[in-house]
Design brief:
Chain lengths: 310, 310
C-alpha cells in the first residue's frame, strides 16, 4: 500500500530510473516487423511485433532498471490487438521481476474510476472468479476532477499493494498554461502546488511503511528543475515520477532536486533515448536490445552521479 | 471538422441527448450472461455479454437518440477482450447511424497524444495501409497539460471530421477542489473558466461551418446549472457535453442553460438511468432494451421541454 516495493527494487538495482516502453511503429526494427508479414490484419501484425520488441527489451533491461513504464497510447493505437500486447507486456515484465507503471493518465469519478482501478491495478469479479485484467503495479492518473477521481483508486492500492502517480507539474512547454497559474489562497499557490498538496492529503490514507512515501505519488517533469526541488521539499511523503529526461531536454543535474537525502524519493523516466538507442548508435538493428541496455546503463550512471543513492 | 455532423443528427432526431454505454457487469441481464457460460475465460465471457447487450441497446435506441457514449473504463475492466467489445460497439453504432463519443478522458503530449488521436479518431498507417483502430466520432479529453495535450488532436479533427470534448466543469461533488479555484488574471477567473476560454481558442483552428460550434467542445456538468448558463454565454463556439443528468441528480430545468436560443449548443448524457431502466421499471429482464428505449424517450421529452429545440 505504498511505493515501498518500488523503492526496494530501486535500492536493489542501485538505479532510480525507469524505461518507458512507448513502442511507436517506427522504433521497431525491420527484422522484427518482417516476421509478421504473413499476418493478414496489419494491426494484429504490428501488435505482435510490439510484443516481441518489448519482450526482448525487457530481457535486456530487467537486471539494469527496477521498473518499466508502458504508455497506453502506443498500444491503443494498434486497437484491441495492441491492448493484448499491453497486457502481455505487463505480465512478462513482472515475471522478470520488474515493477510496472501503466502510463494511462486515467481519470473519471465514482464507479467509473473504480472500473479503471479494477482494470489496471485491482481485480474484477465475474462468475465468482477474481481476475486481474491488466494488473500493473502502478497507474498514472490525472487529478483534474478532484478527490472523487482519486479516492476510488485507494482501496485497490491498499488491497493489492499498488500505487498511483497524479499529474502535478508536467514536463511539456505548455504545462504552465494551467499548472503555473496562481490560485487565491493564503499563501497563494500555483495549481501544481495545489495538486501536490492534495497528493500529500490523499496519501495519508495509504502511508509508506519503510521509506515514508505513500502510495500516492506525483508526476513532476525533469524540464522544470526549480519546481522539482521546491515540490520535493514541500511534499515529503509523495514519491515522484519524473518524465522529460533526455529526449525532452532535461539533464541529470536538473533531476537532482527530485531526490531526498538518501537519494530516494523519485524515479526518472526515459523512453525514446532507450528505445531508439540502436538508431542513435548506428549499430545493426538486430542489436536494438543491447543498445537499449547500454543506454539504460549510461542513464543510470548519469543520474546516480547526481543523487545520493548508495 | 466541427460538431456540425452531431448537430445535424440532433435536429433530425429532435433530441439533444446521448445514451451512455457504461456496461457495468451488474447492469447486464442474467439471460444474456447465461449465453456465455460455456466460454472458459470469464473476461472473454463478460466481454461477449457486453457486446450483445450493447448491440441490443443500440438497436432499440438508434432512432431515438442521435449519439451514444461508450465509457472506456467499463471496457478496459474486461481486459483486451473488453477493448474488442468497445471497438465492435463503436462500429455497430455507426452502422446504425449513431454519432459515437468515446469517453476516455485521454490526455498526454506530443507524439503520445498523436497516438491517442490516431487510436480513437484518426488512422494508423502500417505496411502502407491506413486503418482506424477504434474510429469514434469524438473523444473526451483532459486539458490539464495545456495546448501540448490538445493541439495533436486537431489535425485528426480536421482530416476526419471529428470532435473532442475537453473537461471544463465536471458534474461531481469535488470538482470544485481544483476547477472552482480562482486564478490571478484580469478579471480574475476560475480554473474552469480558464479551461473554457482555452477551448474557444483551440476551436478557432477547427471552426464550425453550419452552426458556429467548433470541433473543440467542453464537458460541463448538469449538477452546476449556474456555471452551465455562465459558460454557455461566455463560450459561444464551444459545444457542451453535459453529464450528471438523472442518476447524478441534475434535472432538466438545470440543463436548460446549456442551450442557445435555437435549442442547440449542448448534448445531455444519461447512462445508468437508461441502462438500468429494466431494473427500475421492474419489467422482465428480457425487456431491458425496450425499457431503455422508454427511458430514452422520457428523457428526450423532459429535456426538449426545457430547450427551444424545434
Amino acid at each position: 500500500m505504498s511505493f515501498d516495493r518500488l523503492i526496494d527494487r530501486i535500492i536493489e538495482t542501485k538505479n532510480p530510473s525507469v524505461a518507458g516502453l512507448d513502442p511507436h511503429y517506427s522504433y521497431i526494427p525491420g527484422c522484427i516487423k518482417a516476421k509478421y508479414d504473413h499476418v493478414e490484419n496489419p494491426l494484429e501484425a504490428a501488435a505482435l511485433a510490439v510484443r516481441e520488441y518489448n519482450f526482448a527489451l525487457i530481457d535486456a533491461l530487467c537486471d539494469v532498471v527496477p521498473a518499466v513504464k508502458p504508455q497506453a497510447a502506443y498500444y491503443e493505437m494498434y486497437g484491441w490487438y495492441g491492448m493484448k500486447a499491453f497486457a502481455e507486456t505487463v505480465t512478462y515484465a513482472q515475471k522478470k521481476g520488474l515493477f510496472v507503471i501503466a502510463d494511462g493518465k486515467r481519470n473519471d469519478i465514482g464507479s467509473t474510476m473504480e472500473a479503471y482501478a479494477a482494470a489496471h491495478l485491482g481485480q474484477v469479479e465475474i462468475r465468482g472468479q477474481k481476475l486481474s485484467p491488466f494488473g500493473a503495479d502502478a497507474l498514472t492518473v490525472n487529478g483534474y476532477l478532484g478527490t472523487d477521481g482519486i479516492a476510488p483508486l485507494l482501496p485497490a492500492c491498499k488491497e493489492f499493494d499498488k500505487g498511483i502517480f497524479v499529474l502535478a507539474k508536467t514536463s511539456n512547454p505548455s504545462s504552465g498554461e494551467l499548472q503555473d497559474k496562481k490560485v487565491y489562497a493564503r499563501p497563494s499557490k500555483t495549481v501544481y502546488e495545489l495538486m501536490g498538496g492534495m497528493c500529500e492529503t490523499w496519501g495519508e490514507e495509504v502511508p509508506g511503511v519503510k521509506y515514508g512515501y505513500s502510495a500516492v505519488g506525483a508526476v513532476v517533469g525533469a524540464t522544470y528543475p526549480e519546481q522539482l526541488s521546491e515540490l520535493r521539499e514541500k511534499l515529503p511523503h509523495t514519491f515522484f515520477l519524473v518524465p522529460g529526461y533526455g529526449a525532452q531536454g532535461g539533464g541529470a543535474e536538473g533531476v537532482a532536486g527530485a531526490f531526498d537525502k538518501q537519494g530516494l524519493g523519485a524515479i526518472v523516466n526515459s523512453s525514446r533515448a532507450i528505445l531508439c538507442a540502436w538508431k542513435k548508435e548506428g549499430c545493426p538493428e538486430e542489436e536494438f536490445a543491447q543498445a537499449a541496455r547500454r543506454e539504460a546503463i549510461r542513464m543510470r550512471d548519469d543520474i546516480v552521479q547526481h543523487t545520493g543513492l548508495k
